[in-house]
Amino acid sequence: MSLERLVELRAIHDDDRGAIAAAFGVSERTVARAEVEFKLREPAPHAPPLPFELEAWAQGLMAEGMPASWVAEDLDVRGNIARGIRARHMDADQRAEVDAEWRSVWGDIRRNEELLELHRQFAPPPGVGLKERRTAA
To answer: Where do runs of H (alpha helix) occur along the chain?
Structure first.
């Protein structure tokens, strides 16, 4: 991927990263990295680290079996931040045990219409953080 070709494709495709990626035959993430590398755009800012108390609280919840996505929802952060906390504080065997337990519980929820309806009622819409849900209520 050359700078000249990337600039040309950005002009042709009106900065549509998906179209540019398809033209190069690479992922959108690869195009995004190239744009930063060639200084065509600024990198996305990193989220500030969580305070120690919140990370310890999140770690405790996940150790008890709460899915990382739920912890992320409570912290109003992206799921990858909660999964990172989990990866730092739980070894692979612990993560596998918690994941297996959650899969078992989720199976029970899916098979029980009442539990499934409650889950749907309280589950956040995909991509909506806690702040957005609070302001919408």
So the answer is: 3-12, 17-24, 28-37, 52-63, 68-75, 79-89, 92-111, 113-122, 130-136
Q: What angle do CA 43, 47, 52 make, to 5 degrees?
A: 150
Domain total for the chain? 2
Instruction: Please tell me whether residue 65 adopts helix, strand or coil conformation.
Output: coil
Same-domain status, 104 and 127: yes
pTM over 0.70: no
The domain containing residue 30 runs over which residues?
3-37
My answer on whether 32 and 70 are in the same domain is no
Query: Using one digit for the tens of pLDDT, what is the confidence trace for 13-42?
Result: 888 889 999 999 999 989 988 999 999 888
Cα-based angle 89, 58, 125 (whole degrees, multiple of 5) = 125
Task: Report how far residue 50's alpha carbon sits from residue 77's, in angstroms, rounded to the nearest whole number.
Answer: 10
Instruction: Give the pair of three-digit tokens for residue 58.
Output: 């999140």
